[in-house]
Write a structure and sequence with these properties.
The protein is mainly beta. It has a single domain (about 30-240), classed as Jelly Rolls. It is about 15% helix and about 40% strand. It contains four helices and 17 strands. The chain has helices spanning about 5-25, 240-245, 255-260, 270, and strands at about 35-40, 50-55, 70-75, 80-85, 90, 95-105, 110, 115, 120-130, 135-140, 150-155, 160-170, 180-190, 195, 200-205, 215-220, 225.
Length: about 270
């Protein structure tokens, strides 16, 4: 475990804990999201029963090995409080893939097994509803190797998933992101109530936190990309690494950070927000 920054990070956590306890966002889109696309399914549809996408893993970043971020797709119920997502984090030295469930209230987080994936390989993510169990099976597969990570999550209180997303998340200096400047998601299937609703779903490009000209592009009903520019200045250029770690500690990053910075576990109330 890396402990070199534990003291300074611990001081930062303690000094900032009151702000983040009172002021952190309480639903998706969460702090740390940058460019994203959000879909509106047909109003007659009850729920999304299948959402399936593929994308190629970006080139390895050449910036700081302490940076961590992820492109992903996923979906929420209308209240945006129960996110399911196949994720693809860069964690300061390697790409990985798994699935995640995050519930805002009461707070609950579940990750499937992490699997390795290389730059240029293809990820195949699938979210599929089981009507008998009222649950979603979440699967993430590396196409070239067949490595798979999966978990099943029951819908909280019978909630119906109707809001699909494609997102790039975690804010760092621009030079820390992949040099190819683009990730392209291909929609393999989008079904509502068991029938194809790809053509009837309207996607909109959005920005939560502006950084590095991160931009979502709706190229077609089955093709959504996110682009960025690694040559641009960023408001995070002068932040210390401890400040960046703390700023980006939410959600899927928390378990990653606990491996590097065990001091985070001393502040569970402050860091267990998304």
């Amino acid at each position: 475990m890396l402990r070199t920054n534990s003291a300074s990070l611990g001081s930062l956590l303690l000094a900032s804990s009151h702000f983040f306890r009172c002021c952190a966002a309480a639903q998706d889109p969460a702090d740390g999201w940058m460019a994203y696309a959000v879909g509106t399914i047909p109003s007659s549809a009850t729920r999304i029963t299948k959402l399936e996408m593929t994308w190629k893993v970006s080139a390895n970043p050449t910036g700081s090995r302490d940076a961590f971020f992820s492109p992903w797709f996923g979906m929420d119920p209308d209240d945006n409080l129960n996110l399911i997502q196949p994720v693809n984090p860069w964690s300061g030295g390697a790409w990985s893939a798994y699935t995640e469930y995050f519930q805002w209230s009461p707070t609950h987080n579940s990750n499937s097994r992490q699997i390795g994936v290389e730059a240029g390989q293809t990820l195949h993510g699938l979210l599929e509803w089981n009507s008998v169990l009222d649950s979603y099976k979440m699967t993430q597969t590396v196409v070239e190797t067949g490595a798979t990570s999966t978990q099943t999550q029951r819908c909280q209180s019978g909630k119906k998933y109707r809001v699909p997303y494609v997102v790039y998340e975690k804010e760092f200096p621009c030079k820390d992101y992949p040099p190819d400047g683009k990730v392209d998601f291909k929609i393999v299937a989008l079904e509502c109530d068991g029938a194809d609703c790809t053509a009837g779903t309207r996607w909109a490009p959005m920005v939560k936190g502006a950084n590095c000209d991160m931009t979502a592009h709706i190229n077609s009903p089955t093709d959504i990309s996110i682009t960025w520019d690694t040559s641009l200045p960023s408001r995070f250029d002068n932040w210390t690494r401890s400040e960046l770690v703390y700023h980006n500690r939410h959600g899927w990053a928390r378990n990653l950070l606990l491996n590097k910075y065990p001091v985070l576990d001393e502040f569970p109330d402050e860091v267990a927000v998304y």
